[in-house]
Amino acid sequence: xxxxxPPRIVVLYCSRGGLSAVEAKAVQDNVHNGPVHLVxxxxxxxxxxxxxxxLLAGGADLVLVLACPEGACRFLVGNVRAEKRIRYIQQxxxxxxxxxxxxxxxxxxxxxxxxIVDQIAVHS
Length: 124
Known about the structure:
This protein is of the alpha/beta class and about 120 residues long. About 40% of the residues lie in helices and about 20% in strands. The chain is built from 4 helices and 4 strands; from the N terminus they run βαβαβαβα. A 4-stranded parallel beta sheet has the order 2-1-3-4, with helices on both faces. Helix 1 (about 20-30) links the parallel strand 1 (about 10-15) and strand 2. The radius of gyration is 14 Å and the shape is globular. The mean pLDDT is about 85.
């Protein structure tokens, strides 16, 4: 019997957002609907449209971006840029007939594993 591979979840997060190694491991241990790949970025503004689309095309079922709160970005408007890009990607997915909740952005700081697990559940 052939089993479909489990869904792949990619979490892109600002390295300054305070996701510790312990919390990252807890995320991976507590998400039960597929493997989670956590990727630190220098700023959420590094998220770009082609990269996210390539992740989806490569088999990711969910791409979740964790960004710092509005007004708290060390690059001033990096998180605003990230949010605009995610909204644009969501519009592209909808226009292609693909569920747009496969891409999401969550703002916050000092993320705890349970916060991220909850957000993955919302978007999955």
